[in-house]
Amino acid sequence: MTETASARVAEPTVVIVGGGFGGLKAARALRRARVKILLVDRQNHHLFQPLLYQVASATLSPADIAAPIRHILRSQRNAQVILAEVAAVDLGARHVGLADGRSLPYDFLILAAGSRSSYFGRDGWARLAPGLKNLEDALEIRRRFLSAFEQAEQEEDPERRREWLTFVIVGGGPTGVELAGTLKEMARLSLPREFRRIRTDRARVVLVEAGPAILANFGSGLSEKAVQGLERIGVEVRLGLPITAIEERAVQLGEERIPTRTVLWAAGVAAVPLGAGLGVPVDRIGRVIVEPDLSLPGHPEAFVVGDLAAFPHGPGGPLPGVAPVAIQQGTCAAANIQATLDDRPRQAFRYRDKGSMATLGRGKAVAHVGGLSLTGYPAWLAWLFIHLMLLVDFRSRVFVFFEWLWAYLTTQPRARLIVGGHERAQPVEPGAQDPTGRSGSPPR
Amino acid sequence: MTETASARVAEPTVVIVGGGFGGLKAARALRRARVKILLVDRQNHHLFQPLLYQVASATLSPADIAAPIRHILRSQRNAQVILAEVAAVDLGARHVGLADGRSLPYDFLILAAGSRSSYFGRDGWARLAPGLKNLEDALEIRRRFLSAFEQAEQEEDPERRREWLTFVIVGGGPTGVELAGTLKEMARLSLPREFRRIRTDRARVVLVEAGPAILANFGSGLSEKAVQGLERIGVEVRLGLPITAIEERAVQLGEERIPTRTVLWAAGVAAVPLGAGLGVPVDRIGRVIVEPDLSLPGHPEAFVVGDLAAFPHGPGGPLPGVAPVAIQQGTCAAANIQATLDDRPRQAFRYRDKGSMATLGRGKAVAHVGGLSLTGYPAWLAWLFIHLMLLVDFRSRVFVFFEWLWAYLTTQPRARLIVGGHERAQPVEPGAQDPTGRSGSPPR
């Protein structure tokens, strides 16, 4: 007993902040290490973010793409999960301060706290155009999307009805593209028979991208294919103009004013503020610039991985904030901790890009995998297969498979529920006070 | 065209308030009637309330037991669904006033707006002991239940830890019994391996019933069997004493003080306030006293069904607020409207009691069906079968079946997510202000 206890005392403590792809992978990679792992997250669940848009579009339920972190790590005896918010990290004293006042000393630290939606300094937009980063966001988008049709059904004035039936999605990356496609398909295929006074299939879904192309890093061929695919199902794609104003009842796009009640934000992310508080160099969106081995300059015991890290050492500059980068970095940071414990040299991180893919709607996708460009049905099947395989635990795979099968065969996804809030019937209350104190139309 | 239009104008309007069991059944029963049906609900979904406790206990997701009312009525061309809150009913002028100011004139009215949790005038208890009436309630209970284990895991003080691991359920009707059984099973079977510092299987679940028996209207034999069944899995059952105080950290039960952080309310319901505003006689819990044909005295065109109705004409006094009563009354009210349209005499409502059943935990239930008393596994299978059959649409049946099969085989229900609110880590904040202005401990 005493021996075990003293052996346990001697084990170094690894604190991991964040139970997303990077943090969870690091914890699992250390499962045989003689360390004590404390994984801290403010949510009780790991979230499979690549499918979050399907919760927003009411195809999947939260439980299909999220699993309790405790459950995932239940058999890993060297890991403890702590549900708490991290307030600050003291790199010098080597401890993590929690919002409830407690302090966790560490021997090794892995920061994997991720990113958040960023509005380029126009914080008043956050209320008008919710982003899609967590389950709450997804349920809020679902609520606004479904409520808009309810409002339109009850609206007598044709102009106002048109506003309710117009959806603007800002940002032409994978999230924006997949959201636009799935929402348009819902309006086109799932909802029409349910409404008596409106034609849901005529709802406008406008995808706005400030740059010259959507899915820019997929390569130009696929980018054009994606535009064609979206336009074929009726999504309007607008390229090359930034949104300059978001108001209660319209967005401004260059000279054009698009009347709309529902704006969704997939345009920008920034690292969580934790990174900027470390006192080490960060890039312009708050990501911590790491060494080749993913540690912090001057702090070989502290690592940063995933969306919170800026890794400028490989070809092509900082890596994109996607799950594969986080997973591979989590593995690498864990391996470098193990190497240090074993007195072996560390490895430099190298990203193995396995490709990119995005769905465009029912049976349609674009994919760039292993040097191969796929479009249409083959790309969609590849997307389906890979995402099912990536889902973290077996049971989610089974249920998601059946949900998808169901939705595909019936065009009737199951989760079309408006739950929570008093916004049920009024997703955006006209004239409501902006809690930030700014007006809906920010200064230019 | 003109003919159709004028024919349509001549069709009487039936306004149905509430898309629960009673209202929805009435709407469907009128599917071939030459009427225009307006179904008003403030939620977009019909909720299968008998399984709501399984959303609270994280076995099912909201989408498993709720379906959009529009979706259910999509093929019924004479029905329109209106998502709105009803503010008042003017029986004299024959119109329903909505909270947004609109007014719906009717020729026939069916009020099926249901019930809400009632705290016997101690409204301050509502915040401390949430009831279980809708999806928001269920998710709140789930949040508190799961968060309590998180708090216990992090608590150093053994006394406070004990408080977090004690759950008091007030009310020994079917809801309280099923909630107690399922929460105890979760603590006993699903959670133990996930926590490192607490023994979740030692969590206390206390079921408190002020009367002399739980499941009182099942008959005394089954009531005792239910107590035995619950005690076998470790639920403590306390009979014959009312709760006299609910505080942040304890409940008072006669002389006994039970320290606890989590109190759940299944003790009392009252009709929604709409009934009391009609200007017709109501009973002591606000239910509208109806005529034998379910209409209102002096208003043969207005019907009240389900939990909002008090039906004193049969044997055994007012009927219980359960789904079969609401369904049968919805059918009866629709038939009486049809009879009036056809100039036939109306029928008086007669309740056909098909029995009662409640689960006690994994593979255990009590049931009184067709004069037969069942217990244990046979009762549980009967419960399973009947509830699957009752689920409103086919797809929910399929998915619920698989969720149950999964949970049964693995003891790992899928929906253990803490979502929403800032209460994540602190479900009941000590010292928080009671929004009602009352203290946690109400005057006796």
From TrEMBL, chains A, B:
Disordered: region residues: 423-444
The UniProt record lists the keyword Oxidoreductase: yes
Transmembrane segments: none
Gene3D superfamilies: 3.50.50.100
Residue ranges of domain External alternative NADH-ubiquinone oxidoreductase-like C-terminal in the record: 354-409
InterPro entries for the chain: FAD/NAD-bd_sf, FAD/NAD-binding_dom, NADH-Q_oxidoreductase, NDH2-like_C
Keywords assigned: FAD, Flavoprotein, Oxidoreductase
Entry-linked Pfam families: NDH2_C (PF22366), Pyr_redox_2 (PF07992)
FAD/NAD(P)-binding domain mapped to chain residues: 13-330
Cofactor: FAD
PANTHER family named in the record: 64 KDA MITOCHONDRIAL NADH DEHYDROGENASE (EUROFUNG), APOPTOSIS-INDUCING FACTOR 1
Family: Belongs to the NADH dehydrogenase family.
Protein name from the UniProt record: NADH dehydrogenase
Organism: Geothrix rubra
